[in-house]
Model the fold of this input.
Amino acid sequence: MGRISCEALCRAIEKTRTLDRAQKETLADELFHDQPHMFGSFLVQHRLGVSPEKMEFLLELLFVCFLAMRESGLAWPMITEDEQDRQMARYVGTVKFGEDLTAPLRELAMQKYIEAHPEQQLLAYVTVETANWLKRIVAEETDTHVMMSAMNFVNCIAFVPMPISTPSTCRKQGAAQRGRK
Done:
């Protein structure tokens, strides 16, 4: 089981869907403060040629991921650029491995990847949302950047080492979480 429950993910999805513009701006500020490197990997999309409309889709996914982290009730460490690079290299390696397989073996490898993923619900949500998004848009080469970033958000959350917490730390973190809601 992952660190983010299905209930926490559902609350994050619902909260993201109901955000107005001002709330999105506030959440973006909080995201920048708490996870600046993840927010930075969203912002860099513009430099990579991704259109503002497509960046909006990625921002919505990032909001869901960030709110799901909060809704989990855990104290998450800052995800560093090094961690993002590590997870991106890991994911690219996985994708390249799959490219060399026959279709049946690729399906099996994908199934094993999903079954072994620590955050299966978050992975499923981002994968389905991305697949649906791809059906609605006019495809461009830059869409790969959006898809890779979305998967990297999930993998960073899934594999980031969590700090060891003491009972007093847990109480402080719980109080901080309640104050933010």
Summary: The two ends are 25 Å apart (CA to CA).
